[in-house]
Amino acid sequence: ERLMQIEKDYDRLLWAWKGWHDECGNKIRPVYLPYIDLLNKNAKENGYQDLAEYWIEDYEMGNVTEFESIIDQLLKDIMPLYEQLHAYVRGRLCSQYENRFDCDGPIPAHILGNMWAQTWHDRLDDVIPYPDAPLINITKVLI
């Protein structure tokens, strides 16, 4: 994981990402699917429709349909911002990794800073628009 956070070399990142996913993904698949079936069975035996309904209960937002509707609306609301942010990050990374991936398509997962491409903060130094400006902390505004 640390390599994915600090490494910048495209080929080395691809080697690590592909190696990890090939090795772990292939080994876990035969165990993972029965595990999900077992979790669903357990949820049903405890009065839930399925595992999703069990997980959603923690949010105290009503039934699965209501929860999914709220999440769908939130996704629609933030999608324009996400698309612009994604395009900006893709453009900056495309400049850094010239001719290594389609600059109009998805960002390759292995260059985003972790094995699952779910957090991009480790690439902030590569994409920040004004690197000399102080970072803004909005935590107080959000609380």
Automatic annotation (TrEMBL):
Binding sites annotated in the UniProt record for chloride: Y59
Cross-referenced PANTHER family: ANGIOTENSIN-CONVERTING ENZYME
Per its UniProt record, the required cofactor names are: Zn(2+)
Could you name the Gene Ontology cellular component terms for this entry?
plasma membrane
Q: Does the keyword Protease apply?
A: yes
State the Gene Ontology BP annotations.
proteolysis
Q: How is its cofactor bound, per UniProt?
A: Binds 1 zinc ion per subunit.
SUPFAM superfamilies, alphabetically?
Metalloproteases ('zincins'), catalytic domain (SSF55486)
State the superkingdom: Eukaryota
Q: What is this protein called?
A: Angiotensin-converting enzyme
Keyword Kinase (UniProt): no
Q: Which UniProt keywords apply?
A: Carboxypeptidase, Disulfide bond, Glycoprotein, Hydrolase, Metal-binding, Metalloprotease, Protease, Signal, Zinc
| Organism field | Rotaria sordida
Catalytic activity, EC = 3.4.-.-
